[in-house]
Design brief:
Blueprint (H helix, E strand, L loop, with lengths): L1 H11 L5 H8 L4 H8 L9 H7 L3 H10 L8 H6 L11 H17 L2 H14 L1 E6 L2 H4 L10 E5 L5 H12 L3 E6 L2 H12 L6 H51 L8 E5 L6 E6 L5 E7 L8 H14 L4 E4 L5 H15 L2
Parallel strand pairs: 4-7
Antiparallel strand pairs: 1-2, 1-3, 4-5, 5-6
Length: about 350
């Protein structure tokens, strides 16, 4: 459904190519799917959209295409051709600022960069925690051990991560995901720049940093935080389920040998004997009720099982013939003292 809605939006824009359609339909990663959609996703008013309205996209295209190589004109001279007071571009600097915002958005929408940075934050990033508001931390709290804390995002235990999230929700903590900035900036440079020296290269480097700090990191940190939350919750649920399983499977009456009766008429009463650990010792079927009415035979068989296995308790299931079976169990209990 999500894929089809994305295809519909892009098709209405007239930008759906066979290659893009193939990429979307064959995509099985939710993050990659959203990355493919990002350049076509309807956006609220942004710095880049304002710059486009002011006619600065051709300037951005020309600068971005250089990949850091020198232009025939210096940037200020090139940008002066886009000064237009009616559109709100009054100086070369304003034109370059607008072009830089458009380039930053293109960098943010590059699938390979988003994928690489997301992977870096998930595998090599750290959960970095600091104090929350002064009002919330004025008095001692149970989160004091996290006031100056960091741990690898890939290895942080679920209970610890969930505790940090609770601390943030209560305003006591703040946390983010930090990667190796030098490595991240180097990755951006290698992807977008062929030349790293000169005026054009410096301008594009500034665009890369702007895209990283203003667009890429905020959105991808949010994604990684949510991924960590889902992982931590899944692990916590698994631990809870295992602990609950042990509780439910433990004997409600303590460590006793139990004879269990599953009542029934026509198909008989199923009988099972277990020891203190839950190990099955014996099982059979008796027919004390109608239509067979083998009450005496059934009663003797149960007495023999109780004596043979030193039964401490008799358990009767709730269902068809349970009242009659309970009466039988009570008679046996009275006779042999179970």
């Amino acid at each position: 459904i999500r894929k089809q809605s994305i295809l519909d939006v892009i098709e209405k824009q007239g930008k759906l190519t066979p290659e893009l359609e193939q990429q979307i339909t064959s995509c099985h990663n939710k993050h990659l799917l959203e990355d493919l959609y990002l350049p076509y996703k309807p956006k609220r008013k942004t710095k880049a959209s304002v710059a486009r309205e002011r006619g600065l996209e051709p300037l951005a295209t020309e600068i971005f295409a250089t990949r850091g190589r020198a232009l025939e004109k210096d940037l200020e001279t090139l940008a002066s051709g886009y000064i237009n007071a009616e559109l709100g571009v009054n100086t070369s600097k304003e034109a370059l600022d607008g072009a830089g915002h458009i380039i930053a958005e293109w960098i943010n929408e590059t699938v390979e960069i988003r994928t690489g940075l997301r992977s870096h934050l998930s595998s090599s990033g750290e959960v970095v925690v600091t104090k929350g508001s002064k009002e919330k931390t004025a008095e001692p709290t149970k989160y004091e051990m996290y006031y100056d804390f960091r741990e690898a995002a890939a290895k942080i235990p679920s209970h610890r991560y969930l505790a940090i999230r609770r601390g943030e929700e209560e305003g006591v903590l703040k946390y983010t995901i930090e990667g190796d900035r030098i490595q991240i900036v180097s990755m951006l440079d290698e992807h977008f720049l062929l030349n790293r020296n000169g005026e054009t290269a410096e301008f594009l480097k500034a665009c890369l940093v702007d895209a990283l700090d203003r667009l890429l990191q905020p959105s991808l940190i949010t994604e990684v935080r949510l991924d960590l939350k889902r992982r931590a919750e899944a692990e916590a649920i698994a631990v809870f389920a295992q602990n609950l399983r042990q509780v439910l499977l433990s004997s409600p009456a303590g460590e006793k040998r139990v004879l269990g009766l599953d009542p029934g008429y026509r198909t008989g009463c199923k009988v099972a004997v277990i020891d203190e650990t839950g190990k099955l010792l014996a099982h059979t079927t008796i027919y004390p009720h109608q239509p067979q009415n083998k009450l005496t035979e059934s009663k003797q068989l149960l007495i023999d099982l109780c004596k043979e296995h030193q039964i401490s308790a008799i358990a009767v299931g709730n269902g068809t013939a349970s009242r009659e079976t309970m009466q039988l169990a009570q008679e046996i209990s009275s006779e042999i003292g179970v």
